[in-house]
Amino acid sequence: DAGVIQSPRHEVTEMGQEVTLRCKPISGHNSLFWYRQTMMRGLELLIYFNNNVPIDDSGMPEDRFSAKMPNASFSTLKIQPSEPRDSAVYFCASSSQGQASGYTFGSGTRLTVV
Amino acid sequence: GQNIDQPTEMTATEGAIVQINCTYQTSGFNGLFWYQQHAGEAPTFLSYNVLDGLEEKGRFSSFLSRSKGYSYLLLKELQMKDSASYLCAVRGYGQNFVFGPGTRLSVLP
Lengths: 114, 109
Description:
The complex is a heterodimer of chains A (about 110) and B (about 110). By secondary structure, chain A is mainly β.
């Protein structure tokens, strides 16, 4: 089991550029979550999918953020245009329904917008 | 609304016992989880409580009182590698979790 795989691990981009973060969940997990972590705000849920369908996107900061899950093995989080305040670590996590062990997190993408 | 509180920082000595408290007020409850997060790494699952009482797993134990909206994580025989942040998280009726701010634990020799 390779775990939840995120790419890239690090991303440095200039303000105004488009950023795309990628996630491959654990095979067989039917829920996928995107979180953002900063020192000031901790771990915040951005959006989550059940069976590839977005269930709750109320945490998405604004229209600059969008997420897709075209199939059970791939999801993207896109920021366009990026701003310095988007700098954070973005985690993807997956789980199966009712799983007592909770989420399995990916290693995260550290995004820096300059 | 959702609110989860934890102490910001704690310090303890190697070999000692430390208790990290968590209080929560959430609109739904379907389990309380503790995660460990080392600096620069992803959170990893430690424990899960859905019924009142104590769950023990090696050096770590977690307690839950649903009526009081209270949980604690107990770490025994502290080791230097236990220096990390400990996140309390509540799962609502859906699959999403609400995470607390985390408690940064420093274990001193």
